[in-house]
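Handoff note, outgoing to incoming analyst
You'll be picking up this chain. Sequence as last confirmed:
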Amino acid sequence: MKKIRVMIVEDSAVVRALLEYTIGRDPRLEVCAAAASAEDALEILEQFSPGVIAMDIQLPGMDGLEATRRIMSERPIPIVVVAASVESKKWNATAMEALRAGALAVLEKPLGTTHADYQALAERLCTQLVIMSEVKLVRQHHELHEAKGHSPRSWSGGPGQFKMLGIVCSTGGPGALVQLLEGLGSAFPLPILLVQHMTASFIEGFASWLDGVCPFSVTIVNDGCIPVARALHMAPAERHLRLGHRRLWLDAGDPVSFQRPSGTVLFESMARDLGAAALGVLLTGMGDDGAAGLLDIRQSGGYTIAEDETTAVVYGMPAAAVRMGAVCESLPLPAIAARVLELASFNS
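Most recent structure output, in case you need it:
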């Protein structure tokens, strides 16, 4: 079996050696290069052609966030940020900014080999490196693309048809989500429901971070709450989010498409409760979650948008929706907000 080539970017010689040892022990992986700075990493990237990068954030000179942005815009390679454990609020902010910059995952650095948590952290790191190395990426850029592949389908709706917007995203989602929400603007008139696949320990920090960088009030849903306009209602960790009788409900049912919360569960409930008044958007992500639910919305007379392959960091979930005929329209990320505003009969 061909081993996955890993580049390590870490300024501490001690930690760099620990990472080389940890990754080198895994039979699926091999360390092809180790750089002490972002500048060094960028210089040797072409020479070593790694399949995945383990990136530190705190680096001398250019930091890991800027290095991640450059790699994702110039020569996309899956990046797993491996950061030191810090005070919780700062750690969450660092993690979210790394994901926004284009990193696919953020992990805590393994501690010394004699530490009680070393084995668990080491196994998690190696497993994430393997999984993320298989992600097919597109170059991140910000210019406006024209939609291609799927033109707008016939739509017989009128002003005021839509009552709620559902958004589902996974790998690559934080950055895409912020761009979409900023484009909608704080006066967007519909309640927004969100499923973002994320490690349970990051959910509260993600909600707090998102509240600070997007134009909406962001809350983690409580069972039975009523969704309101100009607010984003986010599924909590390990609970499906459903809409029923215009209230939001949580449950710990079986995972759908290996996910809990599941975007398909959310979209299916919107189709049942709202019918033609449901508006669904499926963004970047691995796997196929959300696709079947998006089809339900479309078949109920609602409108569905999937992020186009030209901008999706990971064109997995949107591609699955396109394949099953669930998508009214495929649009590049910079064009989605304008289309949603148009459908909601609202001009910012």
